[in-house]
Design goal:
There is one protein chain. The protein is of the alpha/beta class and 163 residues long. The protein has a single domain, classed as Metalloproteases ("zincins"), catalytic domain (Collagenase (Catalytic Domain), 3-Layer(aba) Sandwich), CATH 3.40.390. It is built from five helices and five strands. Strands 1, 2, 3, 4 and 5 form a five-stranded mixed sheet that branches. Helix 3 packs across helix 4 and helix 4 crosses helix 5. The longest helix has 18 residues.
Length: 163
């Protein structure tokens, strides 16, 4: 049995429960890895503009390394070009502290709770989920809710990620 490792070199974050919940909800079995990076509001705006053509700041951006994996159980032998020390590297998530703080205040929950929601959201993007079409959005939101319900069973809240 594998696991999902979330690596953040900038900060010490407690994300094992979150990673385990996403891994379980998506039915994964291989050893997987994703990185988390924090960026300023100006920095994430530049990334959003350069990578997506949207010239505004945002809360989370995801940069997946694999295409066409939505709903699939990843296997090491199918991802040999994306290996990182025995783990399949699925991509990077960029978060904006200013947006996390602002959205947490607006919603009325902790910054940690908002950050965790955005990490879940970003991870689902790395696994191929999206929310451009209503059908896809409903599917992605349902997966987010499954994970959040595991992490915060006492809540019925979910934030609205901008992307």
């Amino acid at each position: 049995m594998g696991k999902l490792v979330l690596e953040c070199l900038e900060r010490k974050l407690k994300l094992k429960r979150l990673a385990k919940a996403v891994y379980r909800v998506l039915g994964q079995k291989a050893k997987l890895k994703a990185e988390i990076v924090f960026e300023s509001e100006d920095g994430i705006r530049v990334l959003n503009r350069d990578e997506r053509g949207v010239d505004k700041s945002t809360d989370v951006l995801s940069f997946p390394t694999l295409d066409g994996i939505k709903g699939k159980v990843l296997r090491k032998e199918d991802c040999v070009t994306e290996m990182d020390g025995g783990y399949i590297f699925i991509g990077s998530i960029v978060l904006c502290d200013d947006k996390i703080k602002e959205q947490a205040e607006d919603i009325g929950h902790s910054e940690e709770r908002e950050r965790n929601y955005l990490i879940v959201h970003g991870l689902l993007h790395l696994f191929g989920y999206d929310h451009i079409k209503e059908k896809d959005k409903a599917e992605m939101r349902a997966k987010e809710k499954q994970v959040i319900d595991i992490l915060y069973p006492e809540e019925n809240l979910t934030s609205g990620a901008e992307n």
